[in-house]
Amino acid sequence: MDANNIPKIGYRIYNLAKKLWHYNRSITGIDNRKTLKHLQGISKKLKIKSIKSGKKVFDWVVPDEWNVKDAWIKDAKGNKIIDFKKNNVHLMGYSIPKKCDLTFEELKKNIFVDHERPNAIPYITSYYKKRWGFSMSLNQLKKLKKQKYKVFINSSLKPGVLNYGEILIKGKIKKEILLSTYMCHPSLANDNLSGIVTTIYLAKWIEELKDRKYSYRIIFIPETIGSIAYLSKHFKELKKNIIGGFNITCVGDNRAYSYLPSRSGNTLSDKVAKHVLNNIDKKFVRLTWFNRGSDERQYCSPGIDLPIASIMRTAFARYPEYHTSDDNLKKVVSPKGLAGGYNAIKLAIEAIEKNCYPKAKIMCMPQLGKRGLYTTLGTKKQNHNTRLMMNILTYADGKNSLIDIAEKSHRPIWDTYKIIEILIKEKIISI
Ligand code: ZN
């Protein structure tokens, strides 16, 4: 892809990100519902589900619902020096309501800054301990005068619900592929808006997929508490049906591709993720289980053990703008980055869909020449794809998967799809 040749899907995903940018997403709240409603405009199959506050989910409890109408800090002259309405990253997630006058020293105790990134506003949350706070750039804090400040947080923390979105798409068989993305960060782009917008467009593509073999479960949940709540409700059916899947996050920048394994590291999803990335960018970053940090921690936890891996662009905590206001749609996420993230996961899903165990129907080498599949002129050089066809045939014992044959042949699995179609049509193999 060069700069002038960015696939249209990249712009479509990017434009959706712009529309969803300003919502104050958190683990609960009105703006999560608004985000999900907006996603229903892309996929009508998306159902908005809810779990009540106070519900015990494994070792956790679904917290109260948090909503914010307004929040600001004013200086002695009445100027708003911090305004939640201008940038929602300023307000600590789950801040309790507050209205007070404070000295500079008192105010400072509730202000968070990022010393490594002095111009950016750090993203801070406190879901399970009741407190309030604002974050601002270090440079802004340095300029603040020693005077009285007014603090106002018009938030509410009340019993309500935790919402999530769920799309179930039936395939020919009951076995399922799980796609999970989280939606709990306010105006932050790569982590995590890129995951939300890419996943909904993947869902749309899957819905339109002809001859879909697998069933799909695509969920939009708040990170950690959402996946724990979802698993506590569904883990038995998930354990029975899920054969592969991906946690989708950090898929919007154009700096790298990354792979984060499942806990065991040897599931079908791991194999497919490595195969796809190796064939689109040999320099992809191979992370380990020790780099985990998202919902894979729940999906791969002992006893749950789902085959879930992650295909990312630049992964969480591994880029300088991470969890700051600099992780935005101008500095970090781009149509090109999103198109790449979308494409990599699409190729991985396609690989799982098309993976099969070819089985020869003819003893010894089939005579390809008489079927027009092989040059009748015996020469030293073999056509690239003829060689691949011969490789498929030599391994077509019903025990080697297509993905393994592609790997052995040092070719991407997508180069085999057309060949498999022809070999089936010519009754040379069955799958
Ligand atoms: Zn995050």
How are the elements arranged and paired?
Layout: H1 8-20, H2 30-40, E1 47-52, E2 56-57, E3 60-61, E4 65-74, E5 80-83, E6 98-102, H3 104-108, E7 111-112, E8 134-135, H4 138-143, E9 149-158, E10 161-169, E11 176-182, H5 189-208, E12 215-221, H6 225-241, E13 242-248, E14 258-260, H7 268-280, E15 285-286, H8 296-299, E16 308-312, H9 335-354, E17 359-360, H10 384-394, H11 402-408, H12 417-425, E18 429-430
Parallel strand pairs: 7-8, 11-12, 11-13, 13-16, 14-15
Antiparallel strand pairs: 1-10, 2-3, 4-5, 4-9, 6-9, 10-12, 14-16, 17-18
Helix pairs in contact: 1-5, 1-9, 5-9, 7-9
The structure holds zinc ion.
Zinc ion is lined by residues 185, 191-192, 316, 323.
| Small molecules bound | zinc ion
Radius of gyration: 25 Å
| CATH domain topology of the largest domain | Aminopeptidase
CATH class descriptor name of the largest domain? Alpha Beta
Distance between the termini: 34 Å
Largest sheet: 8 strands, mixed
Strand order of the largest sheet: 1-10-12-11-13-16-14-15
